[in-house]
Design goal:
With 362 residues, this protein is of the alpha/beta class. The chain folds into three domains: 241 residues, 4-Layer Sandwich (Purple Acid Phosphatase, chain A, domain 2); 77 residues; 38 residues, no CATH class. It is 27% helix and 23% strand. The strands form three sheets. A six-stranded mixed β-sheet has the order 4-3-2-1-11-12, covered by helices on one side. Strand 13, helix 5 and strand 14 form a beta-alpha-beta unit. Helix 1 packs parallel to helix 2. The longest helix is centred in the N-terminal third of the chain and has 21 residues. The protein is elongated and about 80 Å long.
Amino acid sequence: MVSICCVSDSHLGYRHRLKLQRLRDYEKAFVDSINKVIELKPELFILGGDIFHYPRPDPRSMYIFLKKILEIADSTEIVICIGNHEIEGHLGTAYAPIFSELHKNINVLTTDNPHINLKIDGEEIGVHGFQYIRDRKVAEETLIDISNEVDENCHNILCIHQGIEKYIDPFEISIKTLRDISNKYDLILSGHLHKHQRIEEVFDITPAFYIGSTERISFNEWNNKNGFLVFREFEFNNPEFIEIKSADMGVIRKILGKKTPSEINSYIDTIIRENIDKKCLQIVIEAEIRGDYLDILQDWELRYPEFTILDVNVIPKTYETDVEFTGIEINRRLLEEYFEKTGLKDRKDLMELCIRLYERYS
């Protein structure tokens, strides 16, 4: 039975919000995904791009990737697609093509090498694609050109890392172009979009999927499930999505009425305590503040250091009729009060520097 595993968008090396723990989260998620792939013993392993977050990966990230990929290479054919994060700006170069020199079973898709033909358990399999291309016209022309070269007498898989119309804006591949070439393939896979989902607009012709990611790179993705795809016996319509352990993340947005700073502080504190299990938590509160905005606490991360990221934002809700400008004299006492209310009162050196700069240049 031929099985195919597909992993994408691991973003090794990314330090989300400059947090060291987030750097480790991406590593753990990637290693967890590869360990699960190894357990499944697939005949073909496809990486959909953005293995790394930066085009020049740090040594630790490179070591982790190479160590894990070589663990599987002896027993599995590997195909790698190059994502937008791995391409060196205007140079259009990437480290990924070098990986094909590491092992005979590692292959990298590029415009110079867009067709990888494999024979697995007596089955002919063609994996086709190219590196991320930012320019829409060039991306679509490249897709059409390589599709015209596909030998339709075997199982053909298209693997790209591109934005597709209706799923992300701006996009590089239109729905029309994708539909026009879909009948050339038995399966279409794409990296780039971090939410695993079907590409419905071509599914009536060919099964097509965004693979998904192994870890979230922003709070906009907090509700995404992280994992990878498994296809068995060329049943491409209904892959198994295997979830992997990623960092717990949550976003809470609330609109409050008229509240005093004390009431808002108490409300935020309650929310944090109720979500203490979320290692990355964002809270956005919108309220009519009846009092001094500076009396709303700003040092939540210091109060709850057990969070990797604790992002609290209080947005004052105002109305045109409520807008009123009051002249306030800025002086030493006001700056001292600001440092006290924002939880920075112990940073006396910084406070004195700000006061000196204000007195000198105001």
